[in-house]
């Protein structure tokens, strides 16, 4: 499960098995329709889950939060890895 920030400062939350590849597809314009018009995106946060089901549940729960709560979630990191690596768009 990952969170990217779009050019317009909005957040996009999604699920993938390969974060680096997914961020690149968003930035290449072949990702989600939402991010296509809001490129480039910057990876703010990601966390790994044991199963796809767990990741999708986490994604859904995070999408229900207010922007402020999402920002708190990212900042606190919930004891997970906070992304600092920037992925190229190539």
Automatic annotation (TrEMBL):
Domain of life from the UniProt record: Bacteria
Native species: Priestia taiwanensis
Residue ranges annotated for the GIY-YIG domain, each copy included: 1-72
UniProt xrefs under PANTHER family: UPF0213 PROTEIN YHBQ (PTHR34477)
Name of protein: UPF0213 protein
InterPro entries in the record: GIY-YIG_endonuc (IPR000305), GIY-YIG_endonuc_sf (IPR035901), UPF0213_domain (IPR050190)
Signal peptide (from-to): none
UniProt xrefs under PROSITE patterns: GIY_YIG
Protein family: Belongs to the UPF0213 family.
């Amino acid at each position: 499960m990952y969170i990217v920030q779009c050019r317009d400062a909005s957040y996009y939350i999604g699920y993938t098995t390969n974060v680096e590849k997914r961020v690149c597809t968003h930035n290449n314009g072949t990702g989600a329709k939402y991010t296509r018009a809001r490129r480039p995106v910057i990876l703010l946060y990601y966390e790994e889950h044991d199963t796809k089901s767990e990741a999708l549940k986490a994604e859904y729960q995070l999408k229900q939060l207010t922007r402020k709560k999402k920002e708190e979630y990212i900042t606190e990191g919930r004891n997970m890895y906070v992304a600092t690596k920037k992925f190229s768009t190539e």
